[in-house]
Design brief:
- Keywords: Signal.
- The protein is an all-alpha fold.
- It has one domain: Substrate Binding Domain Of Dnak, Chain:A, Domain 2 (Up-down Bundle).
- It contains 5 helices and no strands.
- Helix 2 packs across helix 5, helix 3 runs antiparallel to helix 4 and helix 3 runs parallel beside helix 5.
- The chain is elongated, with a radius of gyration of 19 Å.
- About 20% of the residues are buried.
- The N terminus is likely disordered.
């Protein structure tokens, strides 16, 4: 209820939340294309760097979401419940990402060398960025104490 009142107040005052939509989340395809100027080994290294970047973005988004929940102006029982659900969601996402990216690699079919790993890495980077964006959108407008 507090969140609804907070948003209504912002809109009544003609204000908008500080959150601005992030740049489009990179897709597997755009990530592979961005690294496509390299040889297959170089492409793999480029995608490893993209995965590392995406992992950092995801960790930061998880920390920010956790911090926003800790400072959320809501009854403690709801704050604690949301924290438990965030932890469960984070764990479920890790399982989903592993399984989905295994599928992405399998869709490379009979490819050899680094090709299957390239598909898996692009998938992991995309999903990490997607999850980071999702967490930010879910928590950015929580009213803080």
């Amino acid at each position: 209820m507090r969140a609804i009142k907070s948003v209504a107040l912002w809109l009544a005052l003609g204000l908008t939340p500080a959150y601005a939509a992030p740049a489009a989340t990179p897709t597997e395809r755009t990530l592979r294309e961005a690294c496509g100027a390299y040889s297959q080994a170089g492409m793999r290294e480029c995608l490893v760097a993209k995965v590392d970047e995406s992992r950092k973005a995801l960790k930061a988004a998880e920390a920010e979401a956790s911090g926003r929940l800790a400072g959320w102006d809501e009854d403690l029982k709801y704050v604690n419940f949301a924290k438990v659900r965030l932890a469960a969601s984070t764990k479920a996402f890790a399982t989903y990402r592993k399984d989905q990216c295994s599928l992405a690699a399998a869709l490379g079919g009979g490819a050899i060398g680094n090709a299957l790993e390239i598909w898996r890495l692009a998938c992991e980077a995309e999903l990490n960025h997607w999850r980071a964006d999702q967490l930010q959108r879910a928590t950015v407008d929580l009213p803080l104490k």
